[in-house]
Amino acid sequence: MARILITGGAGFVGSHLARACLAAGHQVHLIIRPGSDDTRIRDLRGDVIRHNFDLQSETALKHCLSDAEPECIFHLAARPRRPENPDFSDARDGMREQVQVLIGLLSAAATAPRPPKTMIRTGSLAEYGSAQAPFPEETREMPVNSYGAELVAATHLVGALQRRLPFPVITARLALVYGAWQSTAYLLPWLVTQCLAGEPSIVRHPEDRRDLIYIDDAVGGLLRLAAAQLPGGTIINIGTGFAPTMRDVARLIIAETGADPTLVQYGPTDGSSGIPDFRAVTALARNLLGWSASTPLAEGLVQTVAWYREHLRLQEPHNQLPTTSRRERTGAP
Fold it and tell me: Which of 28, 162, 220, 272 has its CA 20 to 30 A from that of 262?
């Protein structure tokens, strides 16, 4: 049994990772920001140890690490993408939450009475931006928005600080993760719920290709990274290497939900999203970890639709899953 600490423990990926760690017999500590929706982990009370504080509080963070003494830290806490503001406040907030919080976590972990043995942090294929797809890890990043740039900055900061840290920090660049309990702020779960409800929807960039990885596969990749004892600063793509068009994804969802195909409209095929092909090269994960995604998209969508069909009360006004405006549901990184 190992002691595991997960930041962003109430989030989509964090909650699934917590369950997987519990199933493996580990002691699981979760850092949860006050005010966060804890619906996804509410049934884990008594099984996990919760630490309720904001990661920007370095004092609280040091106390947490001293108490938990984690052997492995999964740093998953990340801000959701925000609308771009003319005063660049979105970029300022993002740099504070992505980079300054990371520095605080690295500092607290490095100076803890018992530093962790390893840290796994999640980045995104969005870091590659408009670079030529598919993306191998050595690709020169070309982020197209502040979100991608913030993640690139954090990734390179880790590499620069690695020689000063008593533990390795590994970056997992995730493809677009989907599955049960994902917020309908994202295109795929929103489209599922719209189809199940018989409501109209639009896929704004239907010919864009997206590497979609089922949540169980993503969690499996993260766990394999933690056990691999890789050198600090290593970057690994965790994806499928397969990128269907969003039109094809929509058609699979329509077929699985039994929705009227005319309810789903499609935007122009002008490539205006900025990243027409969002796809990882996954050879390094296979070679170093012996890992590859094993859930075909069609199978993952069957399981995802089944979960929403069973759990999402579409007609209730107090839906537990957060939503955003249709304008934000683009599916783009």
Answer: 272
Measure the CA–CA gap between 159 and 171, rounded to whole angstroms.
10
Q: Which residues contact 46 (CB under 8 A, 6 or more apart)?
A: none
State how far the Cα of 59 lies from the Cα of 111, in Å rounded to an integer: 12
Chain-centroid distance, C-alpha 37: 16
Rounded (10°) CA dihedral 136, 234, 143, 145:
140
DSSP state of 239: S
281: tokens are 């090269």
Strands 72-75 and 118-124: parallel
| Contacts (Cβ under 8 Å, ≥6 apart) of 208 | 245, 246, 271, 273, 275, 276, 277, 278, 331, 332
Residue 323 pLDDT exceeds 50: no
Mean pLDDT taken over the chain: 91
Omega into 134 within 30° of 0, i.e. cis?
yes
**CA separation for the pair 312, 291 (Å, rounded):** 32
Instruction: Select from 78, 76, 16, 8 the least CA-distant residue to 44.
Output: 16
For 192-234, how does the pLDDT look when each residue is reduced to its tens digit (9 = 90+)? 999 999 999 999 999 999 999 999 999 999 999 999 999 999 9
E strand or H helix that includes residue 137: none
Decide: residue 88, CB within 10 A, 0-12 exposed, 13-18 middle, 19+ buried: exposed
Non-local (6+) Cβ contacts of 98 within 8 A are 78, 79, 150, 151, 153, 154
